[in-house]
């Protein structure tokens, strides 16, 4: 079972976000906007990932007392990366899906470059905030996740890493 420390988390975030962006970058208008079988387009997947990461970089910048007041502390150890991914897959298999503010609108090709830059910028802002966290704080403070419930700061980062991988695989598998 894999437990990632801060440098490993930062490295994985860089790798996964960059891999997603590198996959999207060469897509033409038709590929970027295609919605096969009613599934999200590549642009919508990109917008969804931005919608998912943006609140994190804001939350990780909050003072600890604000996190404590708003969400509390955990009453259990952080799950490992594999345990968190397994819980997410179980929730998806049970019908869990994006809701509310995480559902992307139609995304036109003209927005591709600005969205790619925005996603990269959000990643960098999140990494800067992660660097200011202690390893202990990653396992003490919690945030709400729409599908997973209360998760530690470390688990939310595990989710973010996997979430990128998940959406990249969805795109790759539908065009294979």
Write the layout of secondary structure elements.
Elements: H1 6-24, H2 29-33, H3 42-59, H4 64-71, H5 81-93, H6 112-131, H7 135-140, E1 142-145, E2 149-152, H8 153-175
Antiparallel strand pairs: 1-2
CATH topology: Four Helix Bundle (Hemerythrin (Met), subunit A)
For the largest beta-sheet, the strand count, sense and barrel status come to: 2 strands, antiparallel
* C-alpha end-to-end distance: 31 Å
Strand content: under 5%
Structural class by secondary-structure content: mainly alpha
CATH superfamily: dinb family like domain
The low-confidence parts are none
The SSE order reads HHHHHHHEEH
Report the strand count: 2
The proportion of residues forming helix, as a percent range, comes to: 55-70%
The largest beta-sheet arranges its strands as: 1-2
What overall geometry do the principal axes of the alpha carbons give?
A: globular
Rg to the nearest angstrom? 16 Å
The level-1 CATH class:
Mainly Alpha
Would you identify the CATH architecture?
Answer: Up-down Bundle
Oligomer: single chain
Mean pLDDT: 95
Give the number of helices.
8
Return the domain count. 1
């Amino acid at each position: 079972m894999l437990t990632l420390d801060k440098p490993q988390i930062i490295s994985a975030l860089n790798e996964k976000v960059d891999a997603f962006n590198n996959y999207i970058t060469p897509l033409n208008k038709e590929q970027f906007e295609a919605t096969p079988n009613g599934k999200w387009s590549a642009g919508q997947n990109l917008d969804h990932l931005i919608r998912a990461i943006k609140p994190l970089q804001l939350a990780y910048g909050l003072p600890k007392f604000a996190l404590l007041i708003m969400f509390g502390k955990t009453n259990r150890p952080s799950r490992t990366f594999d345990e968190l991914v397994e819980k997410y897959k179980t929730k998806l298999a049970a019908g869990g899906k994006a809701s509310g503010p995480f559902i992307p609108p139609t995304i036109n090709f003209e927005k591709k470059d600005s969205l790619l830059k925005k996603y990269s910028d959000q990643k960098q802002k999140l990494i800067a905030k992660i660097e200011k966290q202690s390893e202990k704080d990653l396992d003490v403070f919690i945030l709400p996740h729409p599908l997973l419930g209360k998760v530690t700061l470390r688990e939310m980062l595990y989710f973010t890493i996997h979430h990128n991988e998940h959406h990249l695989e969805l795109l790759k598998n539908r065009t294979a």
